[in-house]
Amino acid sequence: MTATAPITQDVLTLPRKPPQDGKMNLVGLTRPALQEALVAAGTPERQGKMRMNQVWQWIYQKGVRDFDLMTNLAKPYRTLLAENFVVEVPEIVSKQVSDDGTRKYLVRIAGGHEVETVYIPEEDRGTLCVSSQVGCTLSCSFCHTGTQKLVRNLTPGEIVGQILLARDDLGEWPEPGRNPKDETRLLSNIVLMGMGEPLYNFEAVRDAMKIAMDPEGISLSRRRITLSTSGVVPEIARTAEEIGCMLAISFHATTDEVRDRLVPINKKWNIAELLDSLRAYPKLSNSERITFEYVMLQGVNDSDEDARRLIKLIEGIPAKINLIPFNEWPGAPYKRSSNNRIRAFADIIYKAGYASPIRTPRGEDIMAACGQLKSASERARNARRAEKPAAE
Question: What is the pTM of this model?
Answer without folding.
Answer: 0.86
